[in-house]
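Worked Example 4.2. Read the sequence first, then its structure tokens.
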Amino acid sequence: MKRIIYCIFLLCLVPTISWAQESDEDEEYQTEFLYGINFNTNGGLIGGLVLRYSTVIDSKMKQTFGLEIVNVKHPKEIRSQSATNGNTYIYGKSNYLFALRPQYGRELLLFRKAPEEGVRISAIGAIGPSFGIVKPYFIALDDGFGNVTIEQFDPGNIRHSQQNILGSAAFTRLTGTKIAMGIHAKAGLSFEIGGFRSSATGFEVGALVEAYTKKVIIVPLAENRSVFTSMYLNIFFKSKR
């Protein structure tokens, strides 16, 4: 993940940045709406979704209202395969953790870009509450009599050994889901690449820290935490009005 962020950062240096040229492009628009995909060091292949609404304060500053919906994984999660039917599951996993992060922040313009070309660079900062959705991870089990039972993984249950697991159960089961309360803060750099005058694409890289009021048990037999840190990459599309 860190290598990906580093490579993208280098690529952003290739386009010509309008360091000295002042443009009134931003003054034409008072609001922005951004949506994109999140990648982070705790989220696996795709971390989640990002939404953000921004309004202009002055020529250099915007206030932002955002929402992130992100899957938080434990570093000890290892996907296994059932010897009985070949279905996959994560042995040892007891809960999912999905983080809903409403946030308020500021965006400070560092470098402008010429209209429809170049790269616009901004510093991003945001803070807000975290609502951790702790959803049980269910597995399908062979009860030894030709029946299949669905249960949350429990390391203390001798029936939950790998030879009895047939795979992970349907994700739609919500029984036992709980909410963990917390807070988060993030800081990063946003690189907006030239597009149409009323829209643009780009990416944002940065770091995030998130703290819950108690430990969130994802993999019971491993070390679990109440504080999570991560590097992130957001790839986004932005519309302006």
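Now turn to a second chain, presented in exactly the same format:
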Amino acid sequence: MTTTLHPPATSIGPVRLAAESVRLAYDDRVVVRELDLQLADGSFTAIVGPNGCGKSTLLRALGRLLRPVEGRVLLDGHAIERTPTREVAKTLGLLPQTPVAPEGLTVADLVARGRHPHQSWLRQWSRGDEAAVAEALAWTDMSELADRPVDALSGGQRQRAWISMALAQGTDLLLLDEPTTYLDLSHQIDVLELVARLHTERGRTVVVVLHDLNLAARYAQRLVAMKDGVLVASGTPAEVLTEELLADVFDLEARIVPDPVAGTPMVVPVRRLR
């Protein structure tokens, strides 16, 4: 498989999604503290940080699955919690870390569920919905697997099926929580190449939580680094992935060298510091 290089964009569009002084908690346990973040239209952002730092919790809040105890999340300048659920679903798609489909559900049926936000008792299933599902399946190379049960797919195929559902949903904001978890390296690249194409060819604004810093640097235009529920760095991969930040955030002594394929920063671990 040939790796496609995705250079950073030279311009920044209007802010589509923003967190303002957001504090997030589960019961009395605060997970994210006073976080400010702006995500520009047409950008590709990767959220990185050690386990338990609040990455997935932040993504849940951005996707309106978790309400801040303080601060607010804005979607296109409006408080997301006050935006009707159906309208949010037409704009923003969130794929959790390990999505689960009902037993026996086929790929075609899963992808068709992406059309639900566009339907109502006045607007039932249409030829337009059928075309959107067919296009999403074709675009993700899942057409031949349309009649296959989702639970019978390989890990990489399953992730493509879920991304196909998000594509059929028609949202231009896509939030992905660790889409490469449990995948071998070739399937990780396969999934990230698909997401990158959604960004570059379909104009999707992408936010993805990733553990692999080298893949994050290769595919994302912007990195957001978190530690202990706090945003500690934000910028281009070259600006964020420094030896000092790796020592502070990941307790890792490392060297930064150019990726021989993409030219982006590549982390070469030396040893754990503590």
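Notes for the reader: Residues 15-272 form a domain with the Rossmann fold fold (CATH 3.40.50.300). The radius of gyration is 19 Å.
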